[in-house]
Write a structure and sequence with these properties.
about 625 residues, 21 helices, globular, alpha/beta, TIM Barrel, 22 strands, Rossmann fold
């Protein structure tokens, strides 16, 4: 296939009409886009109900037109028919006629449970059969389907692509993600992330962003869109988020309303640059952020319900004509300020088209029905958004066929080219910021080298791949596994024991996650880390995840970052430590007082000789 050839080239260089019965959908492989970010397309759809969208609306009542504006939460497993979540989702789809659902993950005992491909497709097909109108099915495949689904290529987080300076890889990621999504019955990707992460204290964007350079982020966003749109036979909706830019905030909008407190000129020259590029390259949707932006909205309300931001800035100034989708309406950045019905009315008034994941979609429908009846919102306004949603459904082929073939899953998801691409990017993303004691790679006389794995929980699988690779090559390496719940006395004993090592390698996993609120080491790990850093043995810190961790431990002898917690990044870190691969990554962000944008020590494979470039 053409796409497979393009991925191989990338690795080498960098290495039914409305109401008709549903029929089976056949997925095809994505085609590789051009190697340069040059092609643009006009933004799809218009802000008024006309053409195909208006025609598709005719059979729908006002209630159903409003319901089409709502995307509810669903899951990728196939539950029992008596399961409360299943009953609720079925009611929303069968009785309320909502426009679609987003595939989220269940969380059990703090662990995210990934969906299984066959079960997920079977369930999506079931919901499509239940639906009166074909459903938009969305998911947050920011770095590929593995973010939500097992058995898929483990692409690293986006900042790893930034560190590898690999636009060809980003474009291939977009194409691969679109292919994975089609195979799974997903027709709307909530990616790419267009945030410029220039705030080290940002607790929710971090490695989800390509970096802090606005133009570099814009180029990567454009490349992803080109890749995702590169197969015209299987069109995929893509979404730039979180408008007008969530990268320079210190709050997690899942927990509270965030704030972008910068002047208009700064926002125009930094935060808006990737969104302008996304619009120029035909992005289908833009997701709002639950944050205040005083420069554009003096009332101090979330952008999601600000007409100044969604209509004045996004629609009128930037000229965006596509779908405007809210961030999840159950997030406290919005839900703490308004009831679900009130928030729904305010968001539609502001210029939103799609209401994502309200905790009470029926209350939203009632509130919008009442707003139309009272004259607060016109029927024409509802029709305009509903028509764009119907046009989007037509664009992805839902009125031709709404079901997805299970026969495609093995070949499309288990494509070895995707795995090679993911590993290649992870390898080239490894970045060495400091190496005062020449600890990279591990010295040939590895006797006395110790490894400390800092995972994020007792049942975490983080670190297993690294330990396996290192112990195969250095079986005598003493290894310690710690996590935030490790008792203080045990941590103290380990810190004392590492005093006998010749050098200590610490692999710290810090994953960006909703409702976490910070991205530092938790529990007793911070004090433990300080104890060994200030001990007699040189410490090399390898951050898998948050790259700003070095700012908490400026006295380490060596510091490397992978910008990702995926297993591919684990393997890349282990290979870099052994000298099996060269270290060539460059910092896509700066660490105040420690490293600048673009810093990185080059280390050839299988030698400890270094050279700064």
């Amino acid at each position: 296939m053409l796409f497979l050839k393009s991925v191989a080239a990338c690795i080498c260089c960098t290495v039914c009409l409305y109401g008709a019965s549903p029929s089976s959908k056949t997925n095809t492989k994505a085609h590789h886009a051009s190697n340069s970010v040059t092609h643009t397309r006009k933004s799809p759809s218009t802000p008024v109900a006309r053409g195909a969208g208006a025609a598709l609306l005719r059979p729908l009542s006002l209630h159903d037109r409003i319901a089409q504006l709502i995307i509810v939460r669903g899951y990728g497993d196939y539950p029992r028919t008596e399961d409360p979540e299943y009953k609720k989702l079925t009611r929303w789809i069968r009785d309320d006629h909502v426009g679609g659902f987003i595939v989220a993950n269940h969380i059990y005992d703090g662990s995210v449970m990934s969906a299984r491909p066959f079960q997920m497709v079977a369930f999506i097909n079931h919901m499509q059969r239940v639906a009166k109108t074909p459903l938009l099915v969305a998911s947050d495949f920011e770095h590929g389907a593995s973010m939500r689904v097992s058995g898929t290529a483990k692409f690293p987080y986006l900042m790893a692509f930034g560190a590898a300076h690999d636009l060809t890889g980003v474009r291939a990621l977009g194409a691969a993600t679109a292919q994975e999504a089609h195979t799974l019955g997903v027709n709307w990707i909530f990616a790419p992330d267009a945030d410029v992460n220039n705030n080290p204290a940002n607790p929710i964007i971090n490695v989800r962003s390509y970096g802090e350079n606005p133009q570099a982020v814009a180029d990567a966003v454009s490349a992803f869109i080109e890749g995702a749109h590169s197969d015209p036979r299987d069109y995929m909706l893509v979404t730039a988020k979180h408008f007008p830019g969530h990268g320079d905030t210190s709050e997690d909008s899942h927990m509270q309303m965030a704030k972008l407190d910068q002047p208009k000129e700064r926002i125009e020259s930094v935060e808006l640059v990737p969104f302008r590029a996304a619009i120029e390259h035909g992005v289908d949707a833009i997701m709002t952020a639950h944050m205040s932006v005083p420069a554009f909205e003096p009332a101090g309300i979330p952008s999601t319900v600000s007409r100044n931001v969604l209509t004045g800035l996004l629609r009128d100034e930037l000229g965006f004509k596509g779908l405007v989708v809210t961030d999840a309406m159950d997030m406290q950045g919005l839900a703490a300020l308004y009831s679900q019905g009130d928030a729904a009315v305010r968001a539609i008034e502001a210029g939103a088209d799609v209401l994502l994941m309200p905790s009470d979609p029926e209350a939203c429908i009632r509130a919008l029905m009442a707003a139309v009846k009272s004259g607060r919102i016109s029927r024409q306004r509802i029709n305009a958004s509903a028509a764009k949603i119907m046009e989007a459904k037509q664009r992805v082929g839902l009125f031709r066929s709404r079901l997805t073939s299970l026969d495609q899953i093995p070949d499309s998801l288990e494509d070895p080219a995707f795995g090679k691409l993911a590993q290649n990017v992870a390898d080239r993303a490894v970045t060495l910021v400091r190496d005062d004691k020449h600890l990279f790679p591990i010295p040939d006389s590895a006797d006395g080298s110790c490894l400390v794995i800092m995972s994020e929980g007792l049942f975490s699988q983080h670190g297993q791949a690294m330990v396996r690779i290192l112990q195969q090559r250095i079986p005598q390496m003493k290894t310690y596994l710690v996590h935030p719940s490790t008792p203080v006395d045990e941590l103290t004993a380990i810190a004392t024991g590492t005093g006998q090592c010749k050098q200590i390698y610490v692999a710290a996993f810090v994953t960006v996650a909703a409702y976490r609120g910070s991205l530092g080491l938790e529990g007793g790990l911070n004090a433990f880390m300080n104890a060994i850093v200030h001990g007699p043995v040189p410490v090399a810190l390898v951050s898998l995840g948050n790259p700003y961790l070095l700012g908490d431990f400026p006295n380490v002898a060596a510091y490397a970052a992978t910008f990702s917690t995926t297993v591919t990044s684990e393997e890349a870190a282990a290979k870099a430590m052994l000298g099996d691969i060269p270290i060539t990554g460059k910092m896509p962000v700066s660490i105040p007082g420690i490293s600048k944008l673009g810093d990185g020590i080059n280390v050839p494979a299988k030698t400890a000789k270094v050279a700064m470039r």
